[in-house]
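Checked the freezer inventory, then went back to the computational side. Two predictions to log before the end of the day. The first one is the construct we discussed on Monday; recording sequence and tokens without edits.
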Amino acid sequence: YTSSLSYFERALEIDPSNVDARYNAALSHLRLGQKWRAQNDLKKSYHHFKRGEEQAKKLIALDEKYPNALR
């Protein structure tokens, strides 16, 4: 997950509103045990929602897969 995270972070440097990169960065942080970083990424993704419904479904699925991990 560490190597993929570097790609997502680079994509976010180019476009901080890239919700897909933010979501995948959050998932990578979560799988690396970095809960606080995953939470931060998800908060930022809410701020940058452009395709709200699609992204909301992804975040709900993430929360269902990892209960209480993001709270």
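The second is the one RB wanted added to the comparison set:
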Amino acid sequence: PFDPPYRYLVRSLSKLAEVHLVDLEEYDGYGECSCQYFHFNIGPKLKQNIKPKKQCRHLRAVKKYHAENYS
């Protein structure tokens, strides 16, 4: 955890040198990730108040971790 319990640094599985910041409080609790998938696919929809069906793997992993450790 970076700033528990809402901000986390997550290492990329495909590019081990990359680390992504996940913030669970952004977009009214939907969350935000600094990865390219989120930036290009999810973020634009959220900015139009459309909740996407998919999440990036970093956001899914952090939400699972958060639910298991802080709920």
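For RB: The first helix runs from residue 36 to 47. The mean pLDDT is 92. Let me know if you want it refolded.
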